[in-house]
Amino acid sequence: MKRYRLKMSICGVFLALFVALGVFLCVWCFGANYAEFDKNARAEAALPDLSDGFVPQGLCEWPSGGATSGYTVAVSGYYSKAPSRVYLLGGEKQGFFTVERDGKALTTHFGGIAATENYLYLTSGNEIVRVSVAEAAAAAETGASVKVHDGFDAGMGLAFCSVSEGKLYVGEFYRAGNYETEESHHIEHAGEKNRALVYRYALADTAERIVESETPEAVFSVRGLVQGIAVGGGEVYFSCSWGLADSTIERHATPASPIGNIKVNGADVPLYFFGKETLRASRAVPCMSEGVFLKDGRLHVLFESACNKYKNFVRRRTKEIMSLPPEFFA
């Protein structure tokens, strides 16, 4: 009899744990509520080839002039067993191209992407590389490859990039345990500690060179988990995410003055700190937000949650590029 009661007690415990786990999973998977996001967000374009293995990472506005007409958005990303791609989207029009260097197709994450009228910039490991916009647009018509025009090593792992008002921004991703950054990049200020950096360069954008100097003109100390950056109107937006948890998009004012200097390439560079003093708004959005850019006051946001790699585990699959109005961040 005692053995029977023991067995029943054990079964009861396992049943209770099973029910609790079921309730938790139901709440986790189906209880995600983004009322303000859903109220304000507008779908801009469907993400391509998610069911074929494409994992979207970077996002930027595509130049509108000359040979690039017909496309409005560029999306960069990777495949697990194929060359990385850049997709060009515009209404019903869609194309893609791969990027080649020294006769080999690049297979990096292409986490960051930015464009000017003449060149497309991509993050590839520690490098920022670029290709011709005209050549890219032509290659996208047939899915061809484009050769790297040139590039340079920023001296840190690059996860995202952006171009705004003649400046090129490139930054690293930090997460404790698996995406560590150099100790010299861990900056303390006013009781806060950031562990990642963003470099700002004066953009040259000529055939001969990418930037005026490969030593940045300014360095930003930023929080961890930043996946994308958008700069405009004296403000900076950070897209922050990791795994299945809700993403966060932060709106910051540009710091009025540096907190000091930091050594880069042996030179003293002004260091600016983004934290509580600069934060103007922080908004929860669905999981796995990635690249962002600003257009007509709206923040366009890319998500990777609907790709094959993650879609069976996420709380919400976001299959489109979404845009958010300024009032969402008021």
Folded structure, characterized:
With 330 residues, this protein is mainly β. It has 2 domains: 1-31; 34-329, Tachylectin-2, Chain A (5 Propeller). It has helices spanning 2-30, 35-40, 133-140; strands spanning 42-46, 55-61, 73-78, 85-90, 93-101, 104-105, 113-115, 119-124, 127-132, 145-147, 150-153, 160-164, 167-171, 187-189, 192-194, 196-202, 218-222, 226-232, 235-240, 247-253, 260-264, 267-273, 279-285, 289-295, 298-303, 320-324. β24 (289-295) and β25 (298-303) form a beta hairpin. The longest helix is centred in the first third of the chain and has 29 residues, at 2-30. Mean pLDDT is 92; it is low at 16-28.
Q: Tally the helices.
A: 3
Q: Could you spell the SSE succession in H and E letters?
A: HHEEEEEEEEEHEEEEEEEEEEEEEEEEE
- Round the mean pLDDT to the nearest integer and report it: 92
CATH class of the largest domain: Mainly Beta
Number of domains: 2
In total, how many beta strands? Answer: 26
From the N-terminal CA to the C-terminal CA, the straight-line distance is: 67 Å
Poorly predicted residue ranges: 16-28
Query: By helix and strand content, what is the structural category?
Result: mainly beta
- What do we call the CATH topology of the largest domain? Tachylectin-2, Chain A
What's the architecture of the largest domain, going by CATH?
5 Propeller
Assign an overall shape: globular
Report the sheet-strand fraction. 35-45%
| Spatial extent as radius of gyration | 22 Å
Major sheet: size, sense and barrel closure? 6 strands, mixed
Helix content: 10-25%
